[in-house]
């Protein structure tokens, strides 16, 4: 009865809000990474001061030699990466550069925390 060859059914249209999910996920991850930076730094200082070398650093002044420009550089990189990762437009999926900015943010914050711990380790 039907002389035409069967064709495949068209793909279903994506849900209206599904195109924004990767952009929201990236912004949410970057926001949480930025917001948790200060509590993580405070926790790192408390843990460093709880150690024997941290106490010796405060009591006797035998702290490590970490240059101040290194702290400023890691904070500047983290701040730039945070801004880059948070400015994802809603209409387009995030690019690889914005995901790289998120991972750069996490890496810069980790390096900063490592520098804080190294300062108190002596």
Question: What would you note in describing this structure?
Answer:
68% of the residues lie in helices and 0% in strands. The model has no long low-confidence stretch (mean pLDDT 85). The protein is elongated and about 90 Å long. It has 5 helices and no strands. The chain has 122 residues and is mainly alpha-helical.
Task: Please give a quick description of this structure.
This protein is mainly alpha-helical.
Q: Which features characterize this protein?
A:
122 residues, mainly alpha, elongated
Q: Please give the number of β-strands.
A: 0
Mean pLDDT: 85
Strand content: under 5%
pLDDT under 50 segments (min length 5)? none
Silhouette: elongated
Helix and strand string, N-terminal first? HHHHH
Please identify the structural class as seen in this structure: mainly alpha
Largest sheet: none
Please state the CA-atom Rg, rounded to the nearest Å: 24 Å
């Amino acid at each position: 009865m039907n002389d035409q060859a069967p064709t495949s059914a068209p793909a279903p249209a994506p849900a209206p809000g599904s195109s924004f999910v990767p952009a929201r996920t990236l912004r949410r991850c970057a926001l949480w990474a930025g917001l948790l930076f200060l509590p993580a730094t405070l926790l790192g200082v408390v843990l460093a001061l709880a150690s024997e070398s941290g106490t010796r650093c405060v009591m006797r002044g035998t702290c490590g030699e970490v240059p101040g420009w290194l702290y400023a550089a890691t904070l500047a990189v983290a701040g730039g990466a945070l801004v880059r990762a948070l400015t994802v437009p809603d209409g387009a999926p995030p690019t690889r550069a914005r995901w790289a900015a998120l991972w750069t943010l996490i890496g810069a914050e980790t390096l900063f925390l490592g520098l804080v711990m190294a300062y108190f380790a002596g």
